[in-house]
Design goal:
The protein has 266 residues and is an alpha+beta fold. The protein has 13 helices and four strands. The relative contact order is 0.06.
């Protein structure tokens, strides 16, 4: 049977106490553990007491580490578990620490997911598909994701998709109308918007080009291709130009008009 001979506060951690047995340092505990087990000078401890104290102190250490991790921003349960595993905390201790975090309401996966969706919905840079995937990677269940995604209403999704499309249109002035349409579809899909939202958003932006805009776009690409294919002549040159411009989304009628210009057949 061990008897506590002295207890002192740690110099650097005022919430931890050094326990001495037979005037020799034996172990340290968190203040909460000290109070829980009523540790004081003269108290007798057997092997079971010591094991129980050690386990509860390990739980309190993991709990404290988790609070520090959570102090920077909200985290999911899965993120906290991964953090503690990296700290080489045993799974049994992690489970107890997680239970304690829930008890004191430091963890709430539904509220975490809702806040996560609201943040990205307000930012407008990600569509719901990407947000869903990121929540899944953070360990949020499908059931909670379904509830949380309601924080991103359909009308806001359409508005954000529309804004993304308008940005792309400004950047891609030299694309053909067909290529521009394809480009917008690709951009919005990568951003994580579902097909119905993309269709609704593109109905509210001007993708169609007038004849002059389309012609200027063709000239831009045509002149670049001329330099690429300058080593070819005659039929071979014409076929390569037609194929390249057609792949870029220009109609064959406009391509023929471009190639039939007098200056190219002097």
């Amino acid at each position: 049977m061990a008897v506590i001979s002295r207890i002192s506060v740690q110099k650097k951690r005022l919430d931890r106490y050094n326990i001495f047995i037979a005037d020799k340092y034996a172990f340290s505990v968190d203040e909460e553990v000290l109070i829980k087990f009523d540790l004081k000078k003269g108290k007798e401890l057997d092997e079971f007491d010591l094991a129980d104290i050690q386990m509860h102190d390990d739980i309190q250490k993991a709990f404290t580490q988790s609070l520090h991790y959570l102090s920077h921003r909200m985290r999911s349960e899965s993120e906290v578990r991964m953090y503690l595993r990296k700290k080489e905390v045993d799974d049994a201790i992690i489970q107890e620490a997680i239970h304690k975090l829930y008890h004191y309401k430091y963890l709430d996966d539904l509220e975490f997911a809702r806040a996560f969706v609201r943040t990205h919905a307000n930012g407008g840079n990600k569509g719901p598909i990407v947000i869903r995937q990121e929540l899944k990677e953070k360990g949020i269940s499908e059931k909670l994701i379904e509830k949380a995604i309601l924080e991103y209403p359909i009308d806001l999704q359409i508005e954000h998709a529309k804004q993304q499309a308008e940005k792309s249109i400004k950047k891609e002035k030299n694309l053909s109308e067909r290529s521009l349409q394809q480009k917008l579809d690709q951009v919005l899909m990568r951003k994580g918007y579902p097909r119905d939202i993309i269709v609704a958003a593109l109905q509210e932006v001007t993708v169609e080009k007038d004849s002059e805009e389309e012609w200027n776009s063709l000239i831009y690409h045509g002149e670049k291709l001329e330099r690429r294919y300058k080593a070819y002549q005659g039929f071979e040159y014409e076929q390569k130009m037609k194929q390249a411009l057609f792949r870029k989304g220009f109609p064959m009628e406009l391509i023929s008009r471009y190639l039939d210009r007098d200056e190219y057949f002097e």
